[in-house]
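histidine kinase, pasting as requested.
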Amino acid sequence: MRDAPVLDTLTTPIAWSGADGRVAGANAAFARWLGVGARRLPGLPLAALEADGERLAQWLAQAPAATEAVRLRRLPLAFPGSTPARFADVVLSPRTDGGCWLEAHPVDEFPGEDPAQVLPGALSAALKGLAHELRNPLAGLKGAAQLLARRADARGGDAGERELLALLQSEVERLAALLDRLLSPAPPRPHAPLNIHAVLERVLRLAESDAGWAVRLQRDYDPSLPDLVGDDDRLTQALWNLVRNAIEAGAANVVLRTRAEHGVRIGEAAHALALRLEVVDDGRGVPEALAEQLFLPLVSGRAEGTGLGLALAQQVAREHRGSLAYRSRPGHTVFTLLLPMAMPEEEAT
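Structure tokens follow.
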């Protein structure tokens, strides 16, 4: 199953079922924790893993209509016929295919009260493993991009070719820096003044390279906006995820809009001035079944989706003391990023 390669790198025991309520797969950590071979689990009714009681079975009976993750405290789990049972706090999350995720956290290891915070922490271990494996092919891409750039210079390549090669090189450098941060976590770099429209132009170049002429990309900028204080790489990553989601949702038109908002409250904080950045598309829209959990990791409306893009975009918004929200109906979806902007007199103090 496509989930297994990534989930096998997690230390959190995770199993998942299909719409029939039977185990469709489990990661290596789940099989080890339960003390059973991973090949013995698929096809087993998921409810059969509960050694005593019917709490799991009762939730699974309601799973087709479930829209939110739930936690079951101290659930005894065991492979049928084996003893003793292992106790865990279990997080159950509905899947887009009608099945569900089951995360088992030994009762002395459960990291927090909010199920939405569980999987992001567990994914960090998986991402570090993936980062390590990606370094070599990324180094090859970097070398190939440099060689192509030298050949283009030698034969006097046109401006369009040079721009694409420069974009390729800058994206390889950005990915290399991201992998370095995953492998060797360091304090976030200080935020600095940036032109948000320069960030958006970089995202548009990526979108044009990805979608070609299949999507019409439109700018609706407020040229009077002052500089924003932030991290241009992280904002590029977040906004590219939003635009790419729009493209993959079948949008024919994508609009990037910037406006100034005065007297804005973001969370508990009031801000005199904020940037309102909207990504508007005419794609299929957000499925109603995902509306309440769209920003959770591993939640995706596409069979091939990882469900990480929106979770990352929301994290970037929080890093900038901002917020990310959306409204959607078929043919009209708007993701709105609100980011506080310091007033000139505040920047001077």
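Note for the archive: The CA atoms of residues 82 and 284 lie 47 Å apart.
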